[in-house]
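pasting input
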Amino acid sequence: MLSVKHLKKKFGKINVLKDISFDVEKGDILAIVGPSGSGKSTLLRCLNMLEVPTSGKIIFEGVNLTSKDANLPLVREKMGMVFQQFNLFDHLTVMENLTLAPIKLKVMGEGNAKRKAIELLKMIDLYDKMDSYPSSLSGGQKQRIAIIRTLMMEPDIILFDEPTSALDPLMVGEVLDLIKRLANSNKTMIIVSHEINFVRNIASKVLFLDEGKVQFYGSNKEFFTSKNKYIKEFLDKVNN
Amino acid sequence: MFKYIYNSFYDSVIYDDRYKFILEGLFNTLIIALFAVFIGFIIGIIIAIIRHNHDTNGKLKVLNRIVVWYVNIVRGTPVLLQLMIIYYVIFKSSDISVVIVGILAFGLNSGAYVSEIIRSGLNAIDKGQMEAGLALGFNYAKTMRYIIMPQGVRNVLPALGNEFITLIKETSTGAYIGIMELTKASDIIASRTYDYFFPLIMIACIYLVITLGLTNLVNKMEVKLFNAKC
Ligand SMILES: Nc1ncnc2c1ncn2[C@@H]1O[C@H](COP(=O)(O)OP(=O)(O)OP(=O)(O)O)[C@@H](O)[C@H]1O
Ligand SMILES: [Mg+2]
């Protein structure tokens, strides 16, 4: 479904990503872990071309996104993204946040979009916030709305960039629970996360990034039982 | 004292229907300021979008350079000089109405200032808003239209109100090319009553009522916008 080949990214002279390759199949839940500054966010943002890679290929559903004639807006409709800072549209109500893209991009009509939004709002128990503005919501509520906002577009894959690290500790649970529900419903996802227990629980594959290089890429079980010195060191550190 | 005020009022306003000068002046001042702020808003948005597109996507290099020059020239020269150039040079041999010349000149002038106001409004918007729009599948233009512009313009509504207030005062320079606006009206009346004190103070009061009233509105709008954001 998604295939990354020899991806490199430089910011000026700094090599942030050095020759990254991996594949994601339908139904996979890939966790990207690694120390701070290792390039996890940059890698994720390259996948939907918010950051333009210096070289390499990203092939998603048969389209090479790094080629000049790729229709990026169309591709991004099928590749949702959830940000650390939520990025709800401040000038729109919750309902408008949810329905803006599907309606304006003609993915569905207004009636269907509203119906779907209500269904999703009920699923996350925020039906009563439909007419609220983001500024009146808690961080956890904002992030859950942001997650269902990407679901509105019915994406084939969802990218999460540290979805809980801007949250009050009390609100981390509700967001992780929602992501877990999506995982159980067989959504394909890539998650950058520091929540190592959560990763152990839901990831099917793990990619361990350090200094812009893939230090490990394999199954959940292999990663958490690895004898590799770096991995053990990393796991020890994040477990404390 | 009372008698002086009464006599001056009579001479400046009632006698010989002189209030008609004041009404015409008030009308022209408001019309010029209103149309100018409208033209300024349109020009300002266009310039701000060109510059934003250039700064975020590296596109429109030539156009960007032109509008930057435009803004610099307009902001770097006196508005009276611009008015004179437009009237005496550009419309030299046409019999166009001076009010229209005024609207054009003040509109073109205002556009440069408004573009900077809107630009600062756009720059104040978190980068994440643009990224969220793009990530949902909007292209740059649609993200600007549905997500960035509405927030940018909302952020600067009070500043645009202030621009309108500035314009109301600035149109007084139009008196120089013979536009019959408020200041010109006071000048004409004064030259007939041979008394400058009363007509000038009276017109000053009219300006004050308008500008203070509008400032009040703008402040209310600011409070409302501020509350909406928190
Ligand atoms: N726009 C940019 N310009 C220049 N350097 C950048 C830019 N974005 C990221 N970097 C650099 O790239 C490196 C990797 O950053 P990145 O945000 O991808 O790391 P990360 O693994 O997500 O870290 P964290 O866990 O702290 O979020 C860092 O050294 C960072 O300073
Ligand atoms: Mg990061």
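fyi Chain B touches chain A at residues 126, 128-129, 131-139, 142, 146-147, 150-151, 154, 228-230 (CB under 8 Å).
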